Amino acid sequence: RRRSNDDLVDLVNPKLVDAFNSEIIAPTGLFDRASETLELFEDVVLTDAKGYVFNTTHARMLISTGRVEGMQPLGGTGPIGDVRSDSYELNNDSDSVTFTGRVQTMLFPDGREN
Predict the structure, then answer these.
(1) pTM here?
(2) Cβ distance 28 to 38 under 8 Å?
(3) Each residue's pLDDT tens digit, 62-100
(4) Which of 64, 19, 15 lies closest to 40 in space, CA to CA?
(5) Buried residues in 9-43 as b, exposed as e (16+ CB within 10 A)
């Protein structure tokens, strides 16, 4: 906890794993108890149970609404393709991801070749 503000907690190597075995890791983070937000910085990696891996340098988790947003570029790869975008938003309630900015995708309709 920060001495100047008890609601702010600096994190080293935070790792979150949900009930579906999706995980998000980062070298550093900041949890704000008052606003219920978790910010992750540097080499942020999100991996889900379906085989998708996303990389970015920033993720903001809004715990009360179940959203993750990032204003930094995101790159991802998975079983059906690759994506890159300038920013993004994940919404757990609707199980959706919105990519914004310059979005580039490569889709493999029959799945990725091994």
Answers:
(1) 0.85
(2) no
(3) 988 888 999 999 999 999 899 999 999 988 766 788 999
(4) 15
(5) eebeebeeeeeeeeebbbeebbbeeeeeebbbbee
